[in-house]
Amino acid sequence: MKIEHGFPEGQRGEVAALFWQAFSGKLGWLMAPEARALDFIERALRPEHALTAFSDTGTLLGVVGIKTWRGGLLTGDFPDLARVYGRLGAVWRGPLLDLMDRPLGHGQMVMDGLFVDRAARGMGVGTALIGAIMDEAQAQGMKEVRLDVIDTNLRARALYERHGFTPTGRKDTGIFKVLFGYHHATTMSRLVDRR
């Protein structure tokens, strides 16, 4: 397995499909139908904010998004939404997507999604991507890496805990829990090693 910065433009659709595979349960109703969701995700992806795991033969295994003050992995705006969903569709989707935004603190890097192909789960890809984002945070002089994990994704939370992330807060979905399919997201963080 090898980890690379970004991903080739030719794999944009594959990365979008992998993102959708991982997050459609959380975003499905909001971004449906699937064809439009994939179109929007593909347009909004920013490869420069990704660390990507490939097999030795070049197969895409997983991606971890990086969010800093420079931007994040998925940074579509109102015009991007309107191109895919029409103006009316963008008007109601935009504010709901904004509810999931995670502001940055000083010296923080946010894990902007970690997603691994179903066929590659349990093979250490997530662990390798966590190691890669911690190394990247150190190289950029960050103090900590932060993430949010939803209450229905216990497997991911256990992975993060095994790798030193600890809970630091909680964000309830409130009246939107029926729409988003989860009750709350736990914010977790890990300090960056200083070598």
TrEMBL record:
Keywords: Acyltransferase, Transferase. Residues 1-193 form the N-acetyltransferase domain. GO terms for molecular function: acyltransferase activity, transferring groups other than amino-acyl groups. It comes from the Bacteria. InterPro entries: Acyl_CoA_acyltransferase, Bact_Acetyltransf, GNAT_dom. This is Acetyltransferase (GNAT) family protein. It comes from Tropicimonas isoalkanivorans.
